[in-house]
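Throughout this chapter, every protein is written as a compact record of paired, labelled lines. The reader may check this reading against the record printed directly beneath this paragraph:
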Amino acid sequence: MPMVLSVSLSLPIAAATASLAMAIPPLQPRAGEPITGLTPSERAQFDLGKKAYTTSATASQGLGPAFNGRNCAACHEVPIGGWGGTTVEHFGRLEADGSFDFLTELGGPVRQRFAISPGCTEQTPAQANHIRQRVTPSTLAFGLVEALTDEQLAANADPDDANGDGVSGRVHMVRPLEAAPGSPLRAGRFGWKAQIATVLSFSGDAAATEMGITNRVVPHETAPNGDPIALAACDLTADPEDTPASNGLEFVDAVTAFQRYLSPPPQTPRAGMTGEAVFNAVGCAACHTPSFTTPDSPGLEAALRGRTFRPYSDFLLHDMGDMLADGIGDGIPDGDAGRFEMKTPPLWNLRTRPAMLHDGSASDPTFEAKVLESIARHGGEGSGSRAAFNALGADDRAHLLAFLGSLGRDEFDIDGNGIIDSDDYALLIPC
């Protein structure tokens, strides 16, 4: 009799399981995985790019003479291609009239932490009176962000605050580093000041500035602390140092492919949460635009074409005032970006950020504490949403924090610790 009962139950269970499997969409890629829909050739480029991204360079390959990391993943570490917890020092001289000197003749505006030999080690110049830290930004789904047209970004700009909401984002127009002089400007979208317009520009600039590897995008070496004698003594490889590898790809092209084909980080639950309504109500979405759809352009790879994604950023510049860093702010201009203007950082992998704010100073071990400190430090155009958040009741605050915690959470990671294991299974069973 038990055998008959077992058989009689197995048929409806099997049918229900099959029906459930058909109803469940594919899992969202985890942060750091390739975007879905790549061709075999594009996936091969992604894999080659990831290898280049994670392989340490040597001095004979062009590393240094001063550098901040031996490979890209040394800084873009959570996950590979994502945010970093390491800070990079930016310095300059702020004059009494408010002008800013980047001290480029002394190796500014970035001080590299390491060197291939002691004689190449950089020090912060005594002339620098303005020193700030910045953490490494995420490069996840850079291809989708790059695919957005300048017009799409400009559609959310309101430089004169015509609607009177206190938010007046503006596009930072820049020339791609790889473009010819005099070529058209493009809407910047990468970097803390939206000072970079393309993924190739980002790769070339980072290779030269952070690793000391000159390339066809940035072909000239920066001398340690601006000293040409130290450069002549320490630099072992002729410029440009980036040459095709055995696979035929230059370093900048390989890491560009990897960053372009990184997937958007997951949002779980993907259908949204009650807290997003609170997020919108307090004005966060005025800068942290929830979603974009890439154009259905034949010039884009199919995997990047007509894709809706949810970055929670408008990629525009906003004046955040001097409250963003304990009353002094970032305070470093860049191109047309003013001293206190910052690009809206995407929130889509917020949960995985090891440290928050541009300088990583919101670094409490708990996610909720990091978020609360970040909100409290919103000044300038962020003051209104900060005040609205402070006025929320306990339940609405909890809903909002839970929603922000869904940005970057892997599906089935019930406890949100970044590991899917038996603990998550135990929490899932009651559901």
About this structure: The longest strand covers residues 87-94. The two ends are 32 Å apart (CA to CA).
